[in-house]
Amino acid sequence: MRDWSGEIEFIRMRTHRAGTPSFRRELRAGSFLLLCPEIAVPAAEFQALPPWEQQAIRAFAVGLGSRKAVLVGKSAARLHGIPVLGNREPATVVLPGGGRPPVKQWPACVQYRRALLPEEQVMEVNGVRVTRIMRTVADVCRYHGLVDGIVAFDHVLTLPTMSRGRADALLGDLGRMRGLGTARRALSLADGRAESPLESWARAQILTADLPEVTSVEPQVPVLGGSRRVDLMVNGFLVVETDGELKYDGSTGVAPTEQMRRDRERDRELSNAGIPRMHVTYGDLANVVKGESRFIRMLRETLQAHARRAA
Question: Where is this region: Disordered (predicted)?
């Protein structure tokens, strides 16, 4: 789990500092941001972070400010470093014992779920109580569905101590719970070869869509004699490349201009080899009309056009 307390200052509102007139003035002036009733952070530092890190810090703040609550689902996943979809969900918590607290105790930034949560499925890291990894991913599947679960399990299968067999055994150790079948299905469709959440999301959408045109979808397929790899290969001929902002922000260790040069060079080589491809953005995956994303509509039209040409 990433230790956010070492990267941004968390100010507990019940401490002496938070009660001083100078701090109150700074809070009113917007120099500090109240993430939950118990925790404030420097506003400029927080707002400079990308949305997914802001969500993780919000969840961390809720956990830090609570004595009993346990972060679950996407909130726990973010603190474990497991990629999840979306950047606007409230911090989600469960109280051990399944009791429901008075509604007034829970602000809009916190979502409470009633669930049976044995203590052996809970861990504490950096002062925050969260569910253990397998319970976390199972809850992501149970609360948010198959697509979200595939994205999470893709990452879990890359962990050094994890294998598909071990993940399946750990799911079994959770005991009986509603929605566990969705978690098992997500694990069966997960693939540790995926190299980005966007790639996992695109593949998960294909796997769960009504697309009789699709006969196969494989991640990280070598092409051009093995000199290059592509994000996804559909039906053995159509390349799907997922284009996200993350690889152009320098966080991968490659300068943005160099990354763009590499991508252009690879695209040129694929064009010269006559390999058909689609470029897919976050917007294509997130834009949903009548239960279907723009990406799935584009993919269906592309495959149907190819079938007509081949007829």
Answer: 249-269
Please say if the pLDDT value at position 203 is more than 60. Answer: yes
Question: Rounded to whole angstroms, how far apart are CA atoms 197 and 192?
Answer: 11
Q: Against a cut of 0.85, is the pTM above it?
A: yes
206 token code pair: 């294909």
Are 84 and 65 in contact by the 8 Å Cβ rule? The answer is no
Evaluate whether 259 touches 250 at the Cβ level (below 8 Å): no
Q: Which of 116, 75, 67 is nearest to 93 (CA)?
A: 75
What pLDDT does 247 receive?
46
For residue 196, CA distances in Å to 33, 50, 85, 162 come to 31, 16, 12, 18
- Is the residue at 260 inside a domain? yes
By three-state DSSP, how is residue 209 classified? coil
For residues 56 and 18, give the distance between their C-alpha atoms in angstroms, rounded to a whole number. 23
What tokens appear for 103 in the block? 């509604």
Question: In this structure, which amino acid lies at residue 155?
Answer: H
Q: What angle do CA 262, 268, 271 make, to 5 degrees?
A: 145
Name the residue among 151, 154, 132 with its Cα closest to residue 85.
151
Q: Are 262 and 241 in contact (CB under 8 A)?
A: no
- Asked if residue 252 is part of any domain, the answer here is yes
Q: How many domains does the chain have?
A: 1
Least confident of 124-128, 145-149, 208-212, 244-248: 244-248
Domain assignment present for residue 93? The answer is no
- Domain annotation covers residue 19: no
Under 8 Å between Cβ of 183 and 137: yes
What's the mean pLDDT in 67-93? Answer: 92
> Residue 128 to residues 45, 49, 61, 96: CA-CA distances in angstroms?
21, 21, 9, 14
Residue 203 to residue 210: CA distance in whole angstroms: 13
Q: Which H or E element spans position 181?
A: helix 180-189
Report d(CA 126, CA 239) in Å as an integer: 42
Report residue 242 CA to chain centroid gap: 15
Predicted local confidence at residue 125, as pLDDT: 84
